[in-house]
Structure formats: C-alpha cells, structure tokens
Amino acid sequence: MRVPDEVRADIPLTSKVVYFDNAATSLTPRHVVEAVTRYYMEYRGNVHRGVHSLSEEASRAFSEARENVADFINASSEEVIFVANTTEALNRVALGMAFHAGDIVVSTELEHHSNFLPFFRLQDRDVTLKIMEASPPGILEEEELGKIEGAHLVTCSIISNAVGTVLPVQKIGAVARKEGALFCVDAAQAAGHVPLDVEKLGCDFLAFSGHKGPMGPTGIGVLFMRKSVQDQMDPCFLGGGAVRDVSLTGYDLADAPYGFEPGTPNIAGAIGLGAAVEYIQEIGFSEIQRQEALLTRLTLDGLSEIPEVTWYGSQEMETHAGVVSFTMEGMNPHDVASILDTQGIMVRSGHHCALPIMKKLHVPGTVRASYHCYNTAQEVEQMVDVVKEIARTLAG
Predict the structure, then answer these.
(1) What does the pLDDT read at residue 334?
(2) Which residues of 262-284 are buried (b: 16+ CB within 10 A; e: fewer)?
(3) Could you tell me if 72 and 216 lie in one domain?
(4) Residue 315: which domain range?
(5) Given this model, what pLDDT does residue 102 score?
(6) Based on the domain organization, do 43 and 164 belong to the same domain?
C-alpha cells in the first residue's frame, strides 16, 4: 500500500477538507466502517452469552479482534482489556491499585488531564504525587527522572498531545523498574503512529483509544494489564460476565480479561478496532512515520519563516512527533483556528486538556495541527500560506 494516495482513496472525507485534528480523532477508512457494518447487518448478537449461531459468530469476531489488538502491541490476549477510551483505562489503573498512605506516584508536566487527574485525586488517600517538570518550550529533561526515586507507580505519555514532544519513555521505564515501581504508559498519541511493544517498553499498563491513531471507531479503547500484576488489581466495576460463580455469601471473579469486562461490551467497536489495527499494519509503520515526519518538518520550517508565530515542543525532529502547536502574536488561538476553518482547514485550538504545560509556556492555549499518514505536503503548504496571510493582515 502506498501512502498517502491509496489511504486517501479509502477515506472519502479527505477529498472535502484538510483534516489536521488527528490528535483528537482521526478519519475512518472504509475497511473499518465495513467491518462494523457487517456485524450490525449480518451477525448482530451478544458475545459469550448464547449458543445460537449469531452469538457464536459475534463471539468469534470479538475474540479475533482481541487477538489482533494483542498482536498490535506484542501482548497476550488475556492482557488486553477493552474499555471505552484512554481516560477510562487510566482511571481504572488509579482506582484499581491498592495504594497506601505514603505511596508515591510520579507523573510529568506534559500529561493530558486524563493521565494527571486520576492520580492527583489519590492525594485524598495520602498518596504523594510528584511531577517531573518540563522546561520551555515543552521538553522533559533527563535530570527530572531523579524524582522517580521511591515511587510506587510511574505514569507518563509517549507523545505529548499538547506540544508533540516525544518523551524518553524507555529511559523513564528503566528507572521505574530499577526503583521497583510499576510503570503505566499513556499511548493515546502514539498508537497507530509508531510501533508499540509492551515488552520493549517494559510497562505494566498501557492505554490507548481506538478513535485516534488507529483510525478505529469511537467509544472503544484498550488497557493492557500485564499478567503479573492482574492479581494486584481490583476491578472498578462488577456484573454479568465478570464472574465465575456467585452465591449469597460471595463471588468468584473470572480470569482476565473477562473479570475486568463486566456487562455487554462495545462489540461493534471492538470489531472495528480489530479491523483498524490490521489496516494500520498493512500500511506499515515505516511508511506512516516517514509521511508524518515529512509533514512535521515542512510545517516547522514554514512556521519558522513567520515572525509572528511561535511554535512549541522539541527542536529535534527525532523527538517531535506529528503534532505541531503554535501561537500567533496578537491573536487568540481560537480566532486563528476559525480563520483556517473558513479555508477548509480543520485544526484544534485551546489548552488541549493539558493546562499544566500551557501554564508553563505562559499561554492560554495554542493552535494545534496534528497529522496522519493520509495528510499531504500540499495540505501543509496550504495551511502555512493561510497563516502567512493572517500575519500580513496583522502587520497592516
């Protein structure tokens, strides 16, 4: 498969708009839509709850999707727990672990609120939260890793959704393991853009949503939970499908992943996600990364030519992902995004659910352009030209 031409042909919306809001949600290929439609039109039934043919076919497709996702992150299927999104997954980690007063959790200043607030709230249980701070323009320096000393849990993202910084996640994980801490990874901005290997990362938990990089449906996500830590985790919810036995005096939970998946799951979403990760693997990460690196470099070079523009994140391409965050002197980010929208260019504006790093940068928010493999150099040039025209208008 060639990138981006054949992918664009499979995503009709790319011919109508310039879509640069992939960090929020990416566009969906026909392959994924068709997989979801087949479930609804051909074998809609509940999973693991019936012996009739529709239930058995749905159960087979659901299990196959779990296997696809497990292969996608180099895990075993019993370590893949389907959830609604990254936010739910990270909340399950915070709520399911047996924290005690005096335990230390370490996170970073670059995190999305979903990888900050669930652990911030643990302070109500006398758990200490330490933050590895970022230096402007949004970089995590290695000396901050010293704050991991004595930690019970370390949690960080692979890529900042706010400024595109690639964090030194493997180094963070190595220090966490040396300290005997559990390691949680927010892969919301990495999944579908870079290869994920839970063995290489050495993480105990990994979370991502299907609707972002993987180009899957909304309402479906993944929590990888390493088998060796599953006995340490309490399920946040209980109900049908999560138990092996129930009596009036107690219950016996089913083995993972089912013990962590009570109730009817998002069957169509899981099937769609299974199809989406197959699609991503067919394209190939080398092609995806090549295209996104090209677009990022073009954007940063173009914006650097505009004196009124300040962009944030790493100056080094190796540690700057396909998320470009910038401000324009004298303009509110929402106004810039609105003008781009009038030209058919969809970007995000605001604080991107990452207020701590916005405050460190001393800005109320930024304009954020975020890419996937179906975006093109011509589209980037179109956006930069509009930003240049805005700057000329400001200059009078």
Answers:
(1) 98
(2) beebbbbbbbbbbbbbbbbeebe
(3) yes
(4) 5-28+284-395
(5) 97
(6) yes
Can you give the CATH number for the domain in which 17 is found? 3.90.1150.10
Q: For 1-45, write each residue's pLDDT tens digit.
A: 567 888 999 998 998 999 999 999 999 999 999 999 999 999 999
Token code pair at residue 182 = 């559990």
**Annotated catalytic sites, by residue?**
353
Looking at the structure, do residues 290 and 247 belong to the same domain, yes or no?
no
Which tokens sit at 65? 């999707």
At residue 49, the pLDDT reads 81
Split into its structural domains, the chain has a count of: 2
301 in the same domain as 180: no
C-alpha distances out from residue 214 to 8, 145, 218, 249, 266, Å: 15, 30, 11, 43, 17
**Vertex 178, ends 173 and 183: CA angle to 5°?**
35
Cβ–Cβ < 8 Å for 367, 337:
yes
Domain end among 282, 315, 332: 282
Let me know how long the chain is: 396
Q: In this structure, are 195 and 110 located in the same domain?
A: yes
Q: What integer pLDDT is reported at residue 1 of this predicted model?
A: 53
**pLDDT at position 269, please?**
98
pLDDT confidence of residue 224: 98
Burial class (CB in 10 A: 0-12, 13-18, 19+), 163: buried
CA distances (Å), 354 to each of 114, 117, 350, 360, 390, in order? 9, 11, 9, 10, 26
Output the domain CATH number for residue 35.
3.40.640.10
Low-confidence spans in the chain with pLDDT less than 70:
1-2
- Asked if 233 and 174 sit in the same domain, the reply is yes
CA distances from 238 to 50, 223, 246, 262 (A): 20, 17, 12, 6
pTM of the model: 0.96
30: β partners: none
Q: Tell me: do 320 and 214 sit in the same domain.
A: no
Strands 18-19 and 345-346 come out as parallel
